[in-house]
Amino acid sequence: MATSYHQHVIEEFRAGRGKVGGPFEGGDLLLLTTTGAQSGKEHTTPLGFVRDGDLLLIVASNLGASRHPDWYHNLLAHPLVQVEIGTESFEAVAVPAEGARRDRLFASVVAVSPGYADYQALTTRTLPVVVLERTEPQEQPRPINTLADKLLEVHTWLRSQLRHVRAEADAHLAARAAEGPGASAAPGLGFQIRQHCLAFCATLTFHHTSEDAHIFPAIAHYHPDLVSVLDRLRQEHGAVARIKDELAALLADVGAADPRQFLAELDRMTDELTAHLDYEEQWLLPVLAEVPFPPGPPPAE
């Protein structure tokens, strides 16, 4: 829960279209909304940020305290976060930088905001530098006019994230192999892979849960001829969910995860989910193209 002071800053930020007074006046400030690691509830925190080229960086300084701030633990558990800067709000994947990259980015932060070096001097823990990566596609988004358009938008994101995680995993193994004999078989996966994979898993769960609870029952009501198709899609949801749980279990200890086992499960997910999405689009897009988005009132009986 936000402190009363933080809540005052949040309210002032939103009322002032990103501008606040007091100690934050004139500084670069954003609002970060995370999902509680234990509670599952949303928490919003005002934080200073630094831009490094195209990167948006925040530092888990906690004013130099001996433990990481709660919002950092939250984003490790739930990498999908909401970011507000000025009047703009967007979803992002929060990825802690590692190793030499973390050190380089921290130096960039300190060059802009020297106070973070003072916070680092106050504690023996290494202050995490977190990169906030937008989830929106770089290309111009397609217009969303129907529920079919919305379904394709989600499916496109899921497919792209699978490709992204696979590319990161391949790069991770290639880097290990370059280290010398036996290194490619060593355990451990990076935060970049972990955070993007967990973000993918969370979106997949939300998408399939929403379909099972809302979209499929509505389609079955107005299109009873598709009941057998919907039954198959629900069964495929269960099969995909089991693979997703196995991926999440592998990532529970990112430092000990077996990269090759992770790749095998990721390939299994890619095969199962791609076939599922293709089948769903084949049967449901024509029906959903008739439903405006956002949906209007249901048709009269």
pLDDT < 50 stretches: none
Helix content: 40-55%
Report the CATH C-level class of the largest domain. Mainly Alpha
**How many domains would you count in the coordinates?**
2
Largest sheet: 7 strands, antiparallel
How much beta, percentage-wise? 5-15%
Assign an overall shape: globular
CATH architecture of the largest domain: Up-down Bundle
Question: What's the number of helices?
Answer: 8
Describe this structure in words.
- There is one protein chain.
- The chain is α+β, with helices and mostly antiparallel strands and 301 residues long.
- The chain has two domains: 4-134, Electron Transport, Fmn-binding Protein, Chain A (Pnp Oxidase, Chain A, Roll), CATH 2.30.110.10; 147-288, Four Helix Bundle (Hemerythrin (Met), subunit A) (Up-down Bundle), CATH 1.20.120.520.
- Helices cover 53% and strands 14% of the residues.
- The chain is built from eight helices and seven strands.
- The chain has helices at residues 4-15, 70-77, 99-112, 115-121, 147-178, 191-222, 227-250, 259-288; strands at residues 29-35, 42-48, 50-52, 55-59, 80-85, 88-96, 129-134.
- Helix 5 runs antiparallel to helix 6 (191-222), helix 5 packs antiparallel against helix 8 (259-288) and helix 6 (191-222) packs antiparallel against helix 7 (227-250).
- The protein is globular, with a radius of gyration of 22 Å.
